[in-house]
């Protein structure tokens, strides 16, 4: 019985080593969240606001964008920790850093910047990755 047990332990160890080798060769995907805040040059212009929102919606066509949320400041209670000075925000989800890089270089994203950058006075980006 001890020979069978030794073979079992040895084969289990080899399987474990094989799994570690596969894991090392194939990097794990870590989701990336891309949150962007825009301040319009003309914050009272409904036309500029709509043009920016329409431009942001085109970004959903980029294949690596897994989810897109476009929003405006919520009318929540005023508190010191809340910054609602921005005009529009976008929240995007990517499978990983590589997907976000494809998005950054994509012609649709470049066209959005070319078409809409004249609308904003400031952009602030927050990127975060899951802790796993």
Q: What would you say this structure looks like, in words?
A:
A four-stranded antiparallel sheet has the order 2-3-1-4. It has one domain (about 30-130): Alpha-Beta Plaits (2-Layer Sandwich). With about 130 residues, the chain is α+β, with helices and mostly antiparallel strands. It has helices at about 1-25, 45-60, 95-105, 105-115; strands spanning about 30-40, 65-70, 90-95, 120-130.
Inertia-based shape: globular
Strand order of the largest sheet: 2-3-1-4
What's the CATH architecture name?
2-Layer Sandwich
Q: Write down how many β-strands occur, each being a DSSP E stretch of 2 or more residues.
A: 4
Number of helices: 4
- Number of separate domains: 1
Segments where pLDDT lies below 50 for 5+ residues?
A: 13-23
Name of the CATH class: Alpha Beta
Helix content: 40-55%
Based on secondary structure, the structural category is alpha+beta
Q: According to CATH, what is the topology? A: Alpha-Beta Plaits
């Amino acid at each position: 019985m001890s020979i069978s047990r030794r073979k079992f332990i040895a084969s289990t160890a080899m399987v474990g080593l094989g799994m570690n080798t596969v894991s090392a060769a194939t990097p794990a995907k870590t989701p990336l969240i891309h949150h962007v805040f825009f301040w319009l040059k003309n914050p009272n212009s409904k036309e500029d606001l709509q043009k920016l929102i329409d431009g942001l919606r085109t970004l959903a066509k980029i294949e690596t964008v897994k989810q897109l949320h476009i929003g405006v400041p919520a009318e929540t209670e005023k508190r010191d920790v809340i910054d609602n000075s921005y005009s529009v925000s976008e929240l995007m989800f990517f499978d990983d850093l590589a997907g976000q890089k494809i998005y950054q270089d994509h012609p649709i994203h470049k066209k959005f910047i070319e078409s809409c950058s004249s609308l904003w006075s400031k952009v602030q980006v927050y990127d975060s990755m899951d802790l796993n």
